[in-house]
Amino acid sequence: MSNESPVVSNFIRSTIESDLASGKHTCIQTRFPPEPNGYLHVGHAKSICLNFGVAQDYQGQCNLRMDDTNPEKENEEFAQAIASDVKWLGFEWAGEIRHAADYFDQLYAYAEELTLAGKAFVCELNAEQMREYRGNFEVPGKNSPFRDRSIEENLDLFRRMKAGEFADGSKTLRLKIDMAAPNLNLRDPVIYRIKRAHHIRTGDQWCIYPMYDYTHCISDALEGITHSLCTLEFADHRPLYDWVLDNITIDCHPQQIEFSRLELLYTMTSKRKLAALVNEGLVSGWDDPRMPTVIGMRRRGYTPEGIKLFAQRVGVSKSENVVDLSILEGAVREQLEGSCPRIMAVLRPLKVTLTNYEEGVTAARTAPYHPQHPEFGERNVPISREIWVEQDDFAEVPPSGWQRLTVGSEVRLRYSYVMKCDEVVKDAAGNVIELKCSLDMATLGQNPVGRKVKGVIHWLSAEHAVAAEVRLYDRLFTTARPDAVRGADGEYADFRQFINPESLEVVTAYIEPVARDLAPETRYQFERLGYFVTDRKDHIAGEKIVFNRAVTLKDTWKSAA
Ligand code: ATP
Ligand code: MG
After folding, report:
1. Cα 281 to ligand 1 centre (Å)
2. pLDDT at residue number 558
3. pLDDT at 557 (0 to 100)
4. Using a 6 Å cutoff on CB, does residue 33 contact ligand 1?
5. φ, ψ for residue 382 (rounded to 5)?
6. 323 alpha carbon – ligand 2 mean position (Å)
7. pLDDT of residue 357 exceeding 80
């Protein structure tokens, strides 16, 4: 099947393979390092598939590490959701979940070591002054007036920073590298700041917190990471990553390798903007099935295998990775095709009375749940005097080539008889409210004699069908780059104005009887309509049946474009 398709090589795999061949490493160790300040999205899923995937493929291991150095923005709900999403995607991290906070003592000790070596100093410039001194791409920076303090003074001040003697933001610890370096990241970067904030792991133990760049490389080295894979925006930080590890006493020096960030059209992959959608109530939550979050995709009915197939298809490179949403939908659809049983559902019901239906004469038939998978089993497809068909399978004035219902025409009821439409019943306003039809009793499981009936429609016995709430989801945005549309003034337009008002439609539908007692997160294909899943939050077996549409059977967007 598709998820067994061969692994495509890439520059990261080549590096790993040559490191194994040369004996530089005997075992591969990677990590996935999310910041617990939001839910994981499809871009993270790509990074997860890469980090856990290469570890798996080369018999190595991958750590899950919460990159929690920003106490004000992080919380336990996010941390738990991240772990659960990684698990759901089908990956297992090595040992316990790690946290940058687990290394706060060691990080502090290394900072003292750097200070003692004359490679770090305590600075009192405020943020604005620091920006000024930093210079820019054209202008070299200027040394901080505090740069030449004695080692003793620096050590004393740093210890007192830790002891809580100074106000938040009043001092920082900075590396002494080079204020004229062309790479701005090397212009005496701050590695510690004073911030009295409660931390999810360490509580109020610390009032100084290490900065990301300093923390990340040391955490990687402490965990024995061999290849530290990250997105391209960190390429300019690599010299700092290497500088820190070269200037402290540590045995391990992981290799940082960058790849391009996944950008998905018709959605957004910025945690900050996704958080805005949630916080402003524009979606129902992080797990709204229209969200590109892992938890949203899960609730939408996407499978881990479909998402992994997608990650494999988008590949890994250093060039732009802008991908149409139809690639994700296509991978999900393809994976569901062979794995979902198929049943019938009618989303917009139109009543049909079978005028020649006769109890005991009109027979039911069994039908397989999947044409290529007999092991999925069969069910009975009952029929009764009243059936439901789809409103748009009937046309009073049919377009040319119409093979579905119209007065005087015949169609095959899927897994049942050929049916002829004899009469239309309308309400006072002229709306079609019912069809009167008759069955050809000689056509159960066989072709009618002397004529061809081409159209096949889905339908349900009204007496047997179960009513359900079905949520028809579509893309959340009407434009390919909702967060990158520039207005006449050259400024980015507000992405909120591109929210697709038709991205959710709720209908009361009818489904085959099997739908009555399903567990949450059960997936079915509804024939001719798409793939659907029972909602993991609102569906209650036997009580309240709620299905979400994961994806339609055809890519309606591509053909519209
Ligand atoms: P921020 O740091 O702004 O909160 P982030 O998207 O970088 O957002 P992290 O939690 O730091 O979030 O990301 C964890 C890992 O996932 C990082 O290694 C990052 O490079 C990777 N990652 C994040 N977004 C994408 C993306 N769109 N495509 C591929 N990898 C991504
Ligand atoms: Mg980040």
Report:
1. 24
2. 54
3. 65
4. yes
5. -75, 155
6. 21
7. yes
